[in-house]
Design a protein that fits this description.
With 110 residues, the protein is of the alpha+beta class. It folds into 2 domains: 41 residues, no CATH class; 43 residues, no CATH class. The chain has 2 helices and 8 strands; from the N terminus they run ααββββββββ. A two-stranded antiparallel ribbon has the order 1-2. It has a two-stranded antiparallel ribbon with strand order 3-4. Strands 5-6 form a two-stranded antiparallel ribbon. The protein starts with a helix and ends with a strand.
Length: 110
C-alpha cells in the first residue's frame, strides 16, 4: 500500500512539473550587477539600460565618475611630498635628497 501511495505521489509530481524545455533564463538587474549607468548585459541575451550620470560626470564601465582631468606633480610645480591631483586623488611627488626637507612641495635645505 505504501509503495502504491509513493508511486501515485511521484506520478502527480511529474504531471504537474513544467517541461524541461520550458525553463527560461532569469535576467539580472542593474542593481545586481552594481551598474549605475549605461548599457549592460542582462545575462539572457538582452540589454539593460542602467541610467545616466549627473552633469559633469561620465559613465565608465557602468560607474559614474567625475569628468575631471587629473594634474601631475610637474603640472603643479611640485617635486616632493603628497598632493591632490585636483580630482579627488592623491599624488606622491617624491622625496628630497639627504640634507633637505620637503616644504610646500619643494625641497629646501634643513
Amino acid at each position: 500500500m505504501r509503495s502504491l501511495l509513493l508511486t501515485t505521489i511521484a506520478l502527480v509530481m511529474l504531471a504537474c512539473a513544467p517541461p524541461l524545455a520550458a525553463q527560461t533564463c532569469t535576467p539580472t538587474t542593474c542593481a545586481q550587477l552594481g551598474a549605475q549607468c549605461g548599457p549592460a548585459s542582462d545575462g539572457c541575451g538582452g540589454t539593460l539600460m542602467c541610467g545616466s550620470c549627473l552633469a559633469g560626470q561620465t559613465c565608465t564601465a557602468g560607474k559614474c565618475a567625475s569628468a575631471c582631468t587629473p594634474e601631475t606633480c610637474a603640472q603643479q610645480g611640485l617635486v616632493c611630498g603628497a598632493a591632490s591631483n585636483g580630482c579627488g586623488g592623491t599624488l606622491n611627488c617624491g622625496t628630497c635628497a639627504k640634507g633637505t626637507i620637503c616644504t610646500a612641495g619643494q625641497c629646501v635645505k634643513k
